[in-house]
## 1
Amino acid sequence: MDKHKSSTLAIPESRSVPRHVAIIMDGNGRWAKQRFLPRVAGHKRGLEAVRATVKACVKRGVEYLTLFAFSSENWRRPQDEVKFLMQLFVAALEQEIEKLHANGVRFRVVGDLSRFEPRIVRLVEEAEARTAENNRLLLTIAANYGGRWDMLQAANRMLQERPELAAGFSEADLTPYFSMSYAPEPDLFVRTGGEQRISNFLLWQLAYSELYFTDTLWPDFDVAALDDAIRSYQERERRFGRTSEQVQSSRRVARISAG
Ligand code: IPE
Ligand code: IPE
Ligand code: MG
């Protein structure tokens, strides 16, 4: 059922370009404030950074890009800002999907959609269906997403389908029920805007992701900023619990068997 193995059950293959990049797009409000603009102007510019990042990921050969657009805690913001973000989401769904489709991007949304207006849910379903056959890049937007929500919905759905597991279950039993079970775990996690926290993003899936924090505000994030993040990633040694010596010798073995 779950074609992607968990990083704690099997050591994933290391590639020089991260296969899955997950980004907390933070700093829109501060970007606007620096320019004496309303916060929402920062969100508008943030959408342009999304376009640039999707393009850059396609170019660099990233296979999965996951963007945190709205957290389960963002409802706590002023009503006007929440309303603006919803309108921006609708506008993006209406205007961007054909372009994504033309570029071979598959589009998906994860999060608790039950709190969204039916119109948004319908647009999301249409966008997912329209792009379902594409395979150049899988773009996931996390909307009303929370890592804790994801774990709870996974456990609840699993127990509903397989009540016998109430007596005890394994990681392999649970992982197919996570909302992103269709993707490998993120290789590279990026947070813009200077804060160094996870803010209830992919709590389970980030177990062995390389973490990269940058002060760059999200509206300023561009292909050069993405390349900086990828370069930092390439300098890491991903050990997954092993020693450095073990990692080196497994690389040698891989090189020899590749000829
Ligand atoms: C991220 O930017 C966008 C969302 C959370 C929707 P912020 O709006 O959090 O920007 P700052 O952190 O206030 O600068
Ligand atoms: C995280 O950013 C959520 C998104 C980018 C969607 P926040 O700006 O909401 O995070 P906190 O509140 O500073 O932790
Ligand atoms: Mg913020």
Note: The longest helix spans residues 79-102.
## 2
Amino acid sequence: MTEQPGEDAAPDVAPYPDLMDRIVNLSKRRGFIFPSAEIYGGFRSTYDYGPLGVLLLRNVKDAWWRAMVQLRDDVVGIDAAILSTPKIWEASGHLDNFTDPLVDCRNCHERWRADKIEGTCPNCGSGDLTEPRAFNLMFKTFAGPVEEDATVAYLRPETAQGMFVNFLNVVTTTRKKPPFGIAQVGKSFRNEITPQNFVFRTREFEQMEMEYFVPPDEADTWFHYWLEERMGWYLDLGIPESKLRLRHHHADELSHYSTATADVEFLFPWGWDELEGIANRTDFDLKAHAAHSGEKLEYFDQSTGERYVPYVIEPAAGATRTMMAFLLAAYDEDEIGGERRTVLHLDPRLAPYQVAVLPLSKKDELIPLSREVLTLLQPVAVCDFDTTQSIGRRYRRQDEVGTPYCVTVDFDSLEDRAVTVRDRDTTEQVRVPIAAVAEEIAGRLRR
Ligand code: GAP
């Protein structure tokens, strides 16, 4: 594991200096991510996930859920409402503290986050900026037909509070005792002053968060445990060690609720930046909600007769941001048989399609057998079926979206009832009997 101090290392942007442009372009061209409402000229840094993007994003979230919930017996899931009472945000401190410092350029009237610029307007270069003022990032709306103070509601700016307000419900219904966690994946909304870098910072995004409730004297041990676990998750799914690091927050960077935080950072084309924050949130949230709601948010340990407010260790990741990091890390160009290709070396667990079934030719006689092969494979893998263009072009198209295996049905297949399985990374091809192809692919995907 790479653990480095906070100082920014020089970004290693080679070998693709324009990698961001290539990813944005590929995302649009192949149906990962489209600018939202494009036929109306787009809408302020919002994005729609296309047929391949929705698969990749779902795989990222599923991989997180599998590691954080399915493979453990100490974490359970919830799915809380996005729209909720302002009382939650009053208690959590978001109404008072969830702000960014906003400055206006008096020359060109652009608005900026004061902490992200260096005293001059990035648009026109003027140094004539207003004094920073606190701008609250929460999206405000009204629940019901009347727009008045009593009906104000907010879209959640983080999924975390859903776990705190359901703490008692979960303890009572599951009989879990600390250390245990509550996990949630879902949309969050922040009225970011300057959304930027494609889906890195957007106003609508998805989070994958887990609140791990522990006895207070075990908080530090669990904090370090989750640092290791979370770093391991990204490495296991193919982010290279050289592009991943842990950065511990300095005391003056800590959120109002935290005594220790470390970020998992990825080496983006513009430098090291955050993928996930892991924080010791202490008993701040449970105590705050207890004080505001009048409910006792404590754990009563029947075996010891002890009653206490657990501390919380929170690994908080962004699903949409992490999906983009996986795309950036997977991108490569190489040469196969003298021909250049673009290839995404995505882990098969993340790849939108795991298999493409490709009849060698569009001729009618290959289609029924190809569909038979497709039907055999669909229960074990997410499959594409492509009959257009030459087989070479179709291999390139699958490489470009990261499909780990192509299964080709040719004219010999009609005689020998076998197909060719091609590996994306090595381009090696092996002949496999149709009767064994599902098991062959399932075996390769299990590896
Ligand atoms: N509950 C703690 C919390 O929300 P955060 O560091 O503000 O912590 C956690 O957010 C993660 O959510 C970030 O590390 C990032 O991956 C993602 N995230 C936050 N704001 C985002 C935005 N505007 N666009 C995309 N992802 C965002």
Note: Residues 51-70 form the longest helix (20 residues).
## 3
Amino acid sequence: MTRVFNFSPGPATLPEAVLRQAADEMLDWHGSGMSVMEMSHRGKEFIAIHAEAEQLARELLGIPQNYKVLFMQGGAIGENAIVPLNLIGRSAGSGQARGKADYVVTGDWSKKSAKEAAKYGTVNIAASGEAGKFMSIPKRADWKLDTGASYVHICSNETIGGVQFHSFPDVGNVPLVADMSSDIMSRPIDVNRFGLIYAGAQKNMGPSGVTLVVVRDDLLGHALPACPSAFDYKLQAESDSMFNTPPTYSIYIAGLVFKHMKQQGGLKAIEEHNRAKAKILYDYLDESKFFRNPVAKEDRSLMNVPFKLKDEALDDSFLRGAQARGMIQLKGHRSVGGMRASIYNAMPVEGVKALVAYMKDFEAQHA
Ligand code: PMP
């Protein structure tokens, strides 16, 4: 068996140790005589798996007791609707038909979030990096926030454009909501700074199918009447994410990934590893005369590194050569072209070194 270096933006590479453990436990989980996939979500085995996954997520992220941890379905695109369905009504005082929220647009994903939210309330684009082609994050001082907004939404890491918040904005008393799909658990964060965090699992946490939602208690109970019950945070919180059948297998794998992260030393150690990996790639991109990354240095993502070749006619040849060396999924998103290396937690430093070695060879051949 040979495993490739998989630079996919998601679903993405997972720790090999986790996959091996899942394979070992596939037919008979801990002597239960069942696969996790076959268990009742209300049986004692799965209740234990679920509780452990939640406990580990709490430990890793340092989630305070006044926040609920929910394992939801619908992915981050689902959350683009679920967040406003639950929160945007908070600001609607008597006589106000619609609630309102602030959105900071830093790339394709937050743009999509803002567009979806506008179905459920009034969306104010507090800042947008679009005029600069999303190559940097608009400075906090230039944001036009509305103190009456129900929440301020940001995307902590734009998976397509490769820009990332390296510190989080102060938005006063308005709850900060973050889509952390592509950088959750890649570094320590102070959860107290947020009202709500959501993230699809399929980059740093596990397989697709489960969305982690961390929500502060006071934000529960404000859902619009039209909010589907299965997407009502309060109902899900009251039933321990079991208002409907949860994505049991995805939660189980996420739990194994969390345990693996803890064994690696937690998020501080993981952040150091991620910084070291990204530095190898960015240092080379900055010295290369053939490849370049266009993002403002201070806003560059440690997770998704887009880059362009000097001559895009060579893109296909670059991708074929990478594939031949066991490196896959390097093609950039169709909206920006070029290449993108996604180097999430589970990408080993060897993968990044192999990529840079190949890029050097390619540059020497074609420069
Ligand atoms: N937000 C971000 C930052 C993402 O990277 C993605 C997926 N690439 C999404 C939202 C959408 O996630 P999903 O397809 O799981 O709904």
Note: The longest strand covers residues 122-128.
